[in-house]
Design goal:
This protein is 39% helix and 13% strand. The chain is of the alpha+beta class. The protein has a domain at 19-73.
């Protein structure tokens, strides 16, 4: 498997990245660089319920056990 850049398709053409991809990269950078504070704007948007639950569990673990500041906005649709 060859290395490729984010936003690069299988053929190597650069197409940019979506908002969701940008969000995931931002979260990943915060985790990899061991940021003391992570600010997230609706991090569960676009995720299925299992993935959203896993993400919230991870963020809770970071705050509780790794002493990281985690601030996130979450909205729910009203019916």
């Amino acid at each position: 498997m060859k290395d490729h850049m984010i936003g690069e398709d299988v053929d190597g053409a650069v197409s940019g990245i979506s908002g969701g991809e940008r969000r995931r990269v931002s979260v990943g950078i915060g985790l990899v660089t061991d940021a003391r504070a992570i600010f997230l704007d609706e991090p569960t948007t676009g995720l299925d319920s299992d993935s959203a639950e896993q993400l919230i569990s991870l963020l809770s673990h970071l705050a509780t056990h790794k002493h990281r500041t985690v601030r996130a906005t979450c909205s729910c649709a009203s019916s």
